[in-house]
Amino acid sequence: MIRYEGKLYRPPSEAESLILQATIGCSYNRCTFCAMYREKRFRVRKLEELDAEIAWAARNAPGVRKVFLADGDALIAKPAYLHAILERLRAGFADLQRVSCYASPQALQVRTVDEMRSLRDAGLVLYYLGIESGHDDVLTRLEKGVDSAEMTRVANKASEAGVKLSTMILLGAGGRALSLEHARASARVVNAIQPRFVSTLVMTPVEDTPLFEQAQRGEVDDLDPLELARELREFLAGLELDGSIFRSNHASNYLAIGGSLPKDKARMLAGLDEVLAHPGRARFTPEWMRGL
Description:
Elements: E1 18-21, E2 23-24, E3 43-44, H1 47-60, E4 66-70, H2 79-92, E5 98-102, H3 105-110, H4 113-121, E6 124-132, H5 136-142, H6 148-160, E7 164-171, H7 179-193, E8 197-202, H8 210-216, H9 225-238, E9 244-247, E10 258-261, H10 265-277
Parallel strand pairs: 1-4, 4-5, 5-6, 6-7, 7-8, 8-9
Antiparallel strand pairs: 2-3, 9-10
Helix pairs in contact: 1-2, 6-7, 7-9, 9-10
């Protein structure tokens, strides 16, 4: 059977995927807002362990179409190791359509375009990349380890390799002082990357993170739903994308909107304008329904 170590995390769109822990934890693990892997020591799992789990899944769930390689940084593993996993997945699941993983900027720095292209040809076709912000001061505050120019450069390596990108932006990460600048700079970076998917999350301090400690000291702004809607509107207005899908359906969001860009941009902006003009009518997600 499949054995998971510690808490397991996956993107919302991988809800129906088979999840395999190719790596445990995150090799970088320094982002101030992220608590997902702090209790784990990063390591690459032994291939024999995954052999047994893939064989079990092939017997018990032969119709698997999507596989997500956890934990937070599977792409940092050596290409030969990832190719071995992909080979086994193709052999075990006749209906397999795609394999995906999180990709940190640090992993994208290490992987070459040729390596990513070869892995794409073997089935690893989608990376989830947390951009978080296009504003350099915000990226420094979040300790992402790269500035906006480097984030753009490494993301475009993946695009050059033919890999689809699903990118995330953290609403509220700039606080009140940088809210609109954060939104505009984030839109500029996303435009430069042209990802297939774009989504927003709301920055939420969680225990056992530097961000939580900063919040306890009163150093983190807690933007209200209307302020976040204004920031979201500014970000969406700045997007100039050709054939991307936008979503704000993560559980941390107060507003769930979505559509294709550029086709649905005007409709989504009109909906946000209605919220800003008549906040009393807005259907903000109640706090008890929000989460990470």
